UniProtKB/TrEMBL annotation:
Protein family according to the UniProt entry: Belongs to the cyclophilin-type PPIase family.
EC number in record: 5.2.1.8
Matching PROSITE patterns: CSA_PPIASE_2
Record keywords, A-Z: Isomerase, Rotamase
GO terms for MF: peptidyl-prolyl cis-trans isomerase activity
Reaction(s) catalysed (UniProt annotation): [protein]-peptidylproline (omega=180) = [protein]-peptidylproline (omega=0)
SUPFAM superfamilies reported in the protein's UniProt record: Cyclophilin-like (SSF50891)
Annotated protein name in UniProt: Peptidyl-prolyl cis-trans isomerase
Gene3D superfamilies named in the record: Cyclophilin-like (2.40.100.10)
Known function: PPIases accelerate the folding of proteins. It catalyzes the cis-trans isomerization of proline imidic peptide bonds in oligopeptides.
UniProt xrefs under InterPro entries: Cyclophilin-like_dom_sf, Cyclophilin-type_PPIase, Cyclophilin-type_PPIase_dom, Cyclophilin_A-like
Record-annotated PPIase cyclophilin-type domain positions: 1-126
């Protein structure tokens, strides 16, 4: 990013109430190379979740990360807090999903590496 890789790159995939995806220099969703020159492994954390506003790596399956990423836009989830708790999500995270939205079905499938942090960022997302 510091060298301008993402300058002028569009968000090529926008699915309302789900996510927006970018990071492909071809703009087609088929391109993009990692800074390592090849795909790199997933990096999951028990501290990071695909809550609304999360920045996550887009991939084509396990350990296929490149340059593409997405921002979670979903503001509603079809699961109740108790269902998420039964599914293994910690109580505070289940509550955050229920209150703010997100994509819990993508947890531990896509590496989360950031989170929108202020109202202005969420206004742009919406």
């Amino acid at each position: 990013a510091k060298e301008g890789y993402y300058d002028g790159i569009i968000f090529h995939r926008v699915i309302p109430e789900f996510m927006i995806q970018g990071g492909d220099p071809t703009g087609t969703g088929m391109g993009g190379q990692s800074i390592y020159g090849e795909s790199f492994e997933d990096e999951f954390s028990d501290e990071l979740y695909n809550l609304r506003g999360a920045l996550s790596m887009a991939n084509a399956g396990p350990n296929t990360n490149g340059s593409q990423f997405f921002i979670v836009q979903n503001s509603k989830i079809p699961y109740a807090k108790k269902e998420l708790e039964r599914g293994g999500w910690p109580t505070p995270i289940a509550a955050a999903y229920a209150e703010n939205g997100g994509t819990p079905h993508l947890d531990r499938r896509h590496t989360v590496f950031g989170q929108l942090a202020d109202d202005a960022s969420f206004k742009v997302l919406d």
